[in-house]
Amino acid sequence: MTTLSVTTWSLEQTAPTDLRPAAAPEGDVRVVRSEVPSPEFSRFLYASVGGDIRWTDRLGWSYARWREHLERPGVETWVAYDRGTPAGYVELEAQDEGVVEILYFGLLPAFRGRRIGGHLLSYGVARAWELADRWPGVKPTTRVWLHTCSKDGEHALENYQRRGFRLFDTKVEDEPEVTAPGPWPGAYSA
Question: How far out from the chain centre does Cα 180 lie?
Fold first, then answer.
């Protein structure tokens, strides 16, 4: 089995004023919270956004596992739509002591490079800072964090830093090399 050297960067914001929002993209782009837990829709977003960049850890999740995750207090999915079509998403998770992690963030391949990503990330981070307002019992946010890696899009780290995230950890590890699962062969060509 061949391995791939993967660099993982962990980044954080420790105050809402750390956020440096991106400009909204041109056209009819809207970001909407997916309020009804839908394993089918969440799996579609996960597989469609991450299929070409080797997101594989959730592909084996059962319907019940998806539902259990999505129904946890403080888990939110915010979806960007371009003229009514899902373009990408950001998934937030409330953790202990007012910490919110951005678990997943990205765009479907056909929507990358159109200035939607910076806007979606800005919107999602702003929602992370106010997450406790929507979830009774969840502590007010004191920190928003995430990790990205060298397998993610080539502009991912730069986008996070432009939005005001600061690097707090870097790790390099060898991982088994896996074939990007799709969404299906030939679905998108740049």
Answer: 18
